[in-house]
Design brief:
Elements lengths: L20 H9 L22 H13 L2 H21 L10 E2 L4 E4 L4 E3 H4 L3 E7 L6 H15 L7 E7 L7 H10 L7 E5 L2 H11 L4 E5 L5 E5 L3 E4 L4 E6 L6 H15 L2
Parallel strand pairs: 4-5, 5-6
Antiparallel strand pairs: 1-10, 2-3, 2-6, 4-9, 7-8, 9-10
Helix pairs in contact: 5-8
Length: about 260
């Protein structure tokens, strides 16, 4: 009996018991049987994937090598301020509280100064007198802080302090008072004048109370409003600010800047 060549079919039940190690070993040794070879199912080893940091680095290197990436990046950076401004709601316009009539008084150097000199400017008014030892120094100190914060706004922005004791506060006294409080006279003016004209401007125009009253000792004293007054380029009152508030300087500077930027 000859050997069955490799590949010849054998229908022996013993040979067809697939899936057992016995099949392959027996068939390889028994003459006349199908020369089966053990079957292996092991898959070829998979290629290892690159670590995530390496893949990220390769992706970034590919991206920055594209000119279109840089064009889009520049456009995104350039448009961000516009997008931010559109998303930020604008503050409401300041209300118009009064309109100031024309006036002309005398400044600390004895020169005429009035509404014509302030036309087209945003300005803040305060009300003081040089003999005042209570609220007036505190009011002037707040005005000095506003001056320090608005130096870059000159000449479009100005400070004006009205004396409510004009019979006593001569230009010379006002000049000494201004120097004592380190006022920059190019940006801060101190005004005096006839009592009636001062009251017309302060009381009727700026709507700030001023008057005289007797104290408990019978001596005549002066009372006056202490609020700072914001006036726009058209001579309209746009805000009153209590100098005792902690944030008064911030609010005055903010609102003055709004008037300057918007033009009204």
């Amino acid at each position: 009996m000859g050997w069955v060549t490799r590949g010849a079919r054998d229908t022996s039940p013993l040979v067809h018991r697939l899936g057992t190690p016995f099949q392959g070993q027996l068939a390889a040794r028994v003459p006349g049987r199908y020369l089966a070879e053990p079957m292996t199912t092991a898959a070829s080893p998979a290629q290892p994937s690159a670590p995530i940091p390496v893949r990220v680095h390769e992706a970034v290197a590919w991206l920055v090598g594209k000119p279109l990436f840089w064009v889009l990046l520049v456009l995104a950076i350039g448009s961000w301020p516009l997008v931010w401004s559109l998303r930020t709601p604008l503050p409401r316009p300041l209300p118009v509280l009064a309109s100031l009539p024309s006036f002309e008084l005398t400044d600390q150097q004895g020169k005429p100064f009035g509404s014509k000199d302030l036309q087209g400017r945003v300005w803040v008014a305060s009300f003081i007198f040089t003999r005042c030892a209570t609220v007036c120094p505190a009011i002037t100190a707040k005005m000095a802080k506003v001056q320090a914060r608005t130096g870059q706004l000159a000449p479009a922005f100005h400070l004006v302090s009205f004396s409510v004791d004009p019979d006593y506060d001569t230009p010379e006294r006002l000049l000494a008072y201004a120097r004592a409080h380190r006022a920059a006279l190019r940006a801060w003016t101190f005004l005096t004048g006839p009592d009636g004209k001062v009251k017309d401007t302060v009381v009727k125009g700026l709507k700030v109370a001023v008057g005289k009253e007797k104290g408990d000792d019978g001596a005549e004293g002066i009372f006056h409003g202490s609020h700072l007054v914001l006036v726009d380029q058209l001579g309209r009152v746009r805000g009153y600010y209590d100098p005792a508030d902690d944030d008064v300087v911030d609010r005055v500077v903010r609102d003055a800047a709004l008037l300057l930027n918007r033009g009204y």
